[in-house]
Specification:
This protein has about 375 residues and is α/β, with parallel strands linked by helices. The protein folds into two domains: about 40-280, Rossmann fold (3-Layer(aba) Sandwich), CATH 3.40.50; about 285-370, Arc Repressor Mutant, subunit A (Orthogonal Bundle), CATH 1.10.10. The protein contains ten helices and 14 strands. The strands form three sheets. It has a nine-stranded mixed β-sheet with strand order 5-4-6-7-3-8-9-10-11, sandwiched between helices. Strands 12-14-13 form a three-stranded antiparallel β-sheet. Strands 1-2 form a two-stranded antiparallel sheet. Helix 4 packs parallel to helix 5, helix 8 packs across helix 9 and helix 8 (about 285-305) crosses helix 10 (about 345-355). The radius of gyration is 26 Å and the shape is globular. The chain starts with 7 loop residues before the first helix and ends with a strand.
């Protein structure tokens, strides 16, 4: 068979075509909002990205997260919010033995509605995410085939990190490993995490909270659990989910004694309003917060100046001080360490905590004690 003639004209024409740029620029007039579904649970979890759900030990965060992602796997609306069904892989790095009971409780509650096959898998082995994430990606691909996970839960961060939560380098590597899971599967990665000593923020270095697309806090008051959206990239904040844990018997042990677990029950209507009010944090001030308030009071006595009438502050607030003067006093009294790794972040966090609890007011680089 004769070889076809080489088309010099076509070759020259193709060679003359410029290669498309690797870093293509999109003109302003071509930029539009996408209408594609961009959530796993609308208003709570994005479809892809990193999310952290944090709270103190025993606050029920794993129960709530498990209940939420099961609704995603089953394509069930979650507390009136739309979901995007996808395969879920739940990595239970701590308390894995208890998940069999939780799943049994969930199965018992929804027995009449469960399909024969649920796209949910449990991974009950501890891992060093930084070291093991590539092997994890490989083996998940092999086991799930065409049904790649759309949600991966890492429960908890502490049990899957070999380094220190407080070190920038270790936490950054962990975030990179979690992000590698997101990129490999185009999925949402939910990191279940504990709070710090002050219970006012997720524990460890701020590189975690700076990298996530969604941050949700979980608090508990008795059997009432409240999950609040603290941060949502390109979304609304302040959404709350209020639940109650209900103890149920799922089976009996070899001695014939009952085996218990808890299932999550929604709290709705007037009960939800009351539960929301009851579940608001009633934490005492930390030592740093108390001392910072004292420093503000002393600074106000020494350097305070009348607030501008245009601010319309209550008559009881007779003086305000410069934030810089207050900060100087805070460091002078050794409330914060000026030589710490991130003194500016420490200072901002401290004053924002006091402002969030409505103990101080701030405006135009001035601060005052609330009354």
């Amino acid at each position: 068979m004769p070889r076809p003639e080489f088309d010099h004209a076509a070759w020259e024409k193709n060679r003359a075509k410029p290669k498309p740029p690797r870093f293509a620029l999109v003109p302003f007039e071509q930029l539009t909002a996408t209408s594609a579904i961009d959530y796993a649970i609308k208003g709570l979890f994005p479809r892809t990205g990193l999310a952290v759900v944090w709270g103190p030990p025993k606050c029920g965060k794993t129960f709530v997260v498990f209940d939420a992602v099961m609704h995603v796997a089953l394509d069930w609306a979650y507390r009136g919010r739309k979901v995007r069904q996808t395969c879920v892989v739940y990595c239970a790095f701590e308390g894995a033995a208890g998940y069999g009971k939780r799943i049994a409780g969930f199965r018992q509650k929804y027995a009449a509605d469960l399909p024969d096959k649920v796209p949910f898998s449990l991974m009950p082995i501890r891992m060093d995410l930084v070291k093991d994430h590539q092997q994890f990606i490989k083996e998940v691909r092999e086991q799930t085939g065409d049904e790649l996970p759309g949600v991966i839960v890492l429960d908890t961060l502490n049990r899957s990190l070999a380094g220190s939560e407080s070190k920038d380098e270790d936490m950054s590597k962990y975030v990179q490993a979690a992000d590698a899971l997101r990129e490999a599967f185009g999925c949402l990665v939910i990191i279940v995490h504990h709070c710090g000593i002050e219970e006012s923020r997720p524990r460890g270095h701020t590189s975690l909270t700076g990298a996530v697309d969604a941050q949700l806090a979980v608090t508990r008051d008795g059997d009432i659990i409240t999950m609040t959206v603290e941060h949502m990239k390109d979304g609304a904040e302040g959404e709350t989910i209020i639940s109650r844990l209900e103890a149920v018997i799922v089976t009996k042990d070899e001695d014939g004694d009952d085996i218990w677990t808890c299932i999550v029950e929604p709290v709705e209507g007037d009960a939800a309003t009351a539960a929301k009010a009851a579940s608001k944090p009633k934490r005492k001030l930390t030592d740093k917060q108390k001392r910072a308030l004292d420093a503000l009071g002393e600074c106000t006595l020494e350097r305070g100046e009348p607030p501008p009438p245009a601010w319309g502050l209550p008559a009881s607030i007779r003086a305000v001080v410069k934030l810089d003067d207050w900060r100087t006093e805070v460091y002078a009294q050794h409330v914060l360490d000026e030589d710490a790794a991130s003194p500016r972040e420490d200072w901002k966090r401290l004053r924002d905590q006091l402002a969030a609890r409505k103990l101080i007011g701030m405006r135009d680089d001035r601060a005052w004690k609330a009354t």
